[in-house]
Amino acid sequence: MASRYFDRGAAAGGALALIGLPYATYQQGATWLTVLLGPATVALGMPLYQQLPRIVELWRPLAICLPVAATLAAFYSLAIAWLLGSSDTILASIAAKSVTAPIAIGITEQLGGTVALLLGALLVTGVITIPCVSLAARWLDIDDDRLIGFALGLNGHAIGTVRAFELSPTAGAFASLGMSLTGIFTAVLLPLAWRLVGMGS
């Protein structure tokens, strides 16, 4: 599954290089696809509504888990990039890599990052999340679709959510919840934290 998404991204990049099409031109032509991501994300509200009773059962642990996991999702990549000596532009471009694209693009532009680099980080993050969550679930002996789905959506945004719906409707609904809440949490707090540490100055 993960290799399928990686192969598609690699194939697209290879095709652009082969025909000599600048990425900026490709991005301009694909703008309408990015625009459609917004309504597609909103449409995920239906499975959330259908799973509402199960979501209510777990609202306390999910509310505790979300801030910690969403913060770590941004922090570990920023810490690694910073230790490697990355520029402020690169840091701003990968900070929102675990957030769904429509929200992540707005955050990245606000932080002063590059959307093209963000989109690459989004693809890599989504692809890597799928096997990592699968391995972690196996290692921790977790077989609850609600928890697996939430982890996939929280860390792997839309790509993780697609994988969750392949597991079950319950996993898909909880992935949608994780993706949505991570987007809201990050959109509100990441720009504030960015300014507090002086990155936006």
Automatic annotation (TrEMBL):
Main localization category: membrane
Transmembrane annotation, as ranges = 5-24, 30-49, 61-84, 90-108, 115-137, 173-194
InterPro entries listed in its UniProt record? CidB/LrgB
Topology within the bilayer: Multi-pass membrane protein
Q: Name one GO cellular component term.
A: membrane
Protein location: Membrane
Q: Which UniProt keywords apply?
A: Membrane, Transmembrane, Transmembrane helix
Enumerate the Pfam families for this protein.
LrgB
- Protein's recorded name: LrgB family protein
